[in-house]
Amino acid sequence: MHGLAEWHWNIAEEALRLSGKYLENSIKAWEAALQEVKASQIYLGGIGKYIADFMVPYWSALDTFLYLETEKLLTHSIDETARDYLELLQFNMQIARKGLESSLTAMNEYHMTEASKTHAALVNTIVGREGHDLSATAWRRAKLLEAIVKKYPDEIRAIAPEFGFHFDDGGYVKAAETDRFTLYQVLPKHKGVNVRPDMKPVLIIPPYVLGANILAFLPGEDKSYVHCFANQGIPTYVRIIKDIGRTPAVQVMAGEDDARDMRLFCEKIVAAHGRPVTLNGFCQGGFVCLANLLSGELDGLVDAFITCVTPIDGTRSKALVEYLEHIPPRFRDLGYALKTLPSGNQVVDGRVMSWVYKLKSMDREAPAYVFYRDIKMFDSVDIEKLRINKTAAALNYWLLYDRQDLPPAITKMSFDSYTIPISPEGTLPVKLFGKELNLKRLAEKNIKWLICYAEDDDLVDKEAALAPLDYIDVEVTAFPKGHGAIATSWSLPTSECSLHSCFLGGRRGPVRFHLDLDIQGKQGR
């Protein structure tokens, strides 16, 4: 009897354990279901937001397109219009296909991985094996999506006080001003470093469309292109364009206005330091500097030149040129990017211009692809300790919020440089003051030139940056990584390719190039 009672007790105990396990698994299944519902809601909101953000420039461009086409329909025959529209449709389908293919690939990779995780979690839950169960896996998925859709944008916006130039924080001195630009001197951030007025000065010219703030990326983190110069005691100046939306003089500015203002600023700097200026242009800013130098407007004021990731001959940027060639000639018109301001002046919409580059790289810029790319980026970290690093936040802030509208005449200069090659004699496709601009003039004036380019630049091809080598001798320094790395990764003084050092076989960074010129200039006195 005792054995039978024990047997019944064991049966009852096992039944109780199994019923408890069943209840526990049921609770976990319900918890997982609720978390999956939450994750689905966040997912739909997130991917919808990515698509909406991507499409914002489209609506602006569409308004201008419809307006211009209303006029062009009156000047083109029906058969011409039909042919152009069919070619445009084919072009749009090609772009859409690239975006769809990359998006489907990213989606497939992510959901296959998640399905595998869910299967493993189901087995863990049923058999009681160690590892994430259904509830924990679903919770993590919901937290991951919540971090991307809600926390990530908040942290990107929160980086604003640390990102870029803040001219009211005491780290800059207003040195001069015109109707279009303000000249600021950048003061050192490193303790114990003071500006040495007898050193050779440098004037840094930011790009128009990408904005100036990329050159003062994260000064508090010691990642700032302009402060790389200033922290060496170099008299460092940066030219900042005034708000185009509020400044009619900027809205109607031509290349000649840019050259005159640059000459005025160089005169101020030379008067303050008694030495010629090193002119340093970043991206599009470098092309504008080059045109100004070749016009003769800066003669006697500038004796050295640095360009960083600058498209000197944009026709050598293969991917962009191929992209433009697929657009029917009728639609290769800057007018489609114009918008009218309250002043009545038209400017080039900076968001539309940057959108063009996104369309060129649609396989990497499609909204769904970017969404899944961000998921993959965060999926590799501990979700409970998730923290967006400042560099990623600042980069995204720059990409999202720092696009600038452009004066049409300045944009036309860049547009011409991407559609008309430099002549066999070395003459640029643009003119200033009615003069032809020939590269050989820099050699005649003995202006030393350092070209810095990025090896993995998908915006400015190496061939476009190095075009001057076909006509004159120029020093070249190649940097690893992409278009913005010189101003972000390599502006950190302790980085492998720090700007004030020699690296990769003795190549000089832009700050090292300038420091050596300063030493040579003092020795030659």
Q: What layout of secondary structure does this protein have?
A:
Elements: H1 2-72, H2 78-127, H3 134-158, E1 172-177, E2 181-186, E3 202-205, H4 225-230, E4 236-241, H5 248-251, H6 255-273, E5 277-282, H7 284-294, E6 302-308, H8 318-325, E7 338-340, E8 346-348, H9 350-360, H10 362-365, H11 367-379, H12 390-401, H13 408-419, E9 427-432, E10 435-438, H14 440-444, E11 448-454, H15 462-465, E12 475-479, E13 502-503, E14 507-508, H16 510-523
Parallel strand pairs: 3-4, 3-5, 5-6, 6-11, 11-12
Antiparallel strand pairs: 1-2, 2-4, 7-8, 9-10, 13-14
Structure, briefly:
With 525 residues, this protein is of the alpha/beta class.
Describe this structure in words.
The protein folds into 2 domains: about 1-160 and about 365-400, no CATH class; about 170-350 and about 405-525, Alpha/Beta hydrolase fold, catalytic domain (Rossmann fold). It has 16 helices and 14 strands. It has helices at about 1-70, 80-125, 135-160, 225-230, 250, 255-275, 285-295, 320-325, 350-360, 360-365, 365-380, 390-400, 410-420, 440-445, 460-465, 510-525; strands at about 170-175, 180-185, 200-205, 235-240, 275-280, 300-310, 340, 345-350, 425-430, 435-440, 450-455, 475-480, 500-505, 505-510. The longest helix is centred in the first third of the chain and has 71 residues, at about 1-70. The chain is globular, with a radius of gyration of 29 Å. The mean pLDDT is about 85.
